[in-house]
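Chapter summary example.
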Amino acid sequence: GPPGKLLQDLSQLSYSHENYNELIGMLWKRCFGQDKKYWRRTYKVSFIQQSLVLYQ
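The structure predicted for these 56 residues follows.
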């Protein structure tokens, strides 16, 4: 998964409404806007989402 520092930074950014919308939009695009052969991206997105829930 992504490094801990990156996850922490993403968590901090998610507190701002503007940054939150941009972050979730990018995660959504990475997860559902890609070809299904890039399954690792989907895995990383789910890992990041889990981290956001835990750090919030």
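To summarize the output: The radius of gyration is 11 Å.
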